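Could you join me in thinking about how sequence relates to backbone shape in a protein? We need material for that, and I hope you will provide a protein of your own picking. Once you have written the record down, we can walk along the chain together:

…
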Amino acid sequence: MDLELLAQLTVSGLVVGSTYALLGVSFGVIYATTRIFHLAHAVAYAGAAYAAVWSADTLGLPFWPALVVGLVAAAVLGVAIEVLFYRPMRRRNATLLTIFLVSLGISVAFPNLLQLAFGPENQSLPRPDNPTYGLGSVTISRHDVATLLICWVLIAAVATYIARTRFGRSVTAMRTNPAMAEAVGIDGKKVYLFVFLIGSLLAGVAGLLFTAKGVATPTMGLQPTLTGFIAAFLGGIGSQWGAALGGLALGLISSWSALYLQVDYGPVVVFGAMFLVLLIRPQGLLGKAAA
């Protein structure tokens, strides 16, 4: 085994796994609370990227203010989907399957709207320099270091807020027993708005981190959303640290698989890992077994 290659792949896996961890937390906090398979989460991811590109190209904003515009767009899009689509459907007692189909429709329609507005070409942000640093035989870029720090600081902040604050405990109560939570005075609408706001912001951060190093495309949100779903279930629904661990594991496994497999087999490895873990531990790595 090439140990130098393994070390480089491990660093790459940690960076990619950190974004998967952030996506797992972003998807998991919404799903665990609402039980909505929010496939339209892809809208916040791609919307943040395109809003940042638009503000830089059209408004002439510098790099950092453009990122702020992208984050605002992600939050607005996520909350708008809850208020304009999901909430009226719940009011009419729509089934979760029906809401999922609406979410699927939104996730299909939005890339087409992006393509009509911006064209099919890849879009990129004017970005600052991205120097690389050497750690022995391993190289890591400044963007990679920033990705690691940003992802784990945000994950820790969200997990701490939900575990330690009064409103965070309201989120946990709505996840555990919605009827009882509302009976004791917890406002379910506010809790749902909160989880869509936080989840969408985290997805927007992930989308901007990707675009700051790569390019924005109309369909860029679907694969990360599915990865976030896998990470959330792999780690255990309802556990922010579990979702983060699941995402980190996915990043490392997919990166290490390059030692023996072609890159094209990465998704197969990811789904295979999820299948094996859930076969042995259906509640996920840090999830609690049903009573």
Q: What stands out?
A: DSSP finds eleven helices and two strands in the chain. The chain has one domain: 3-126+136-280. The mean pLDDT is 90.
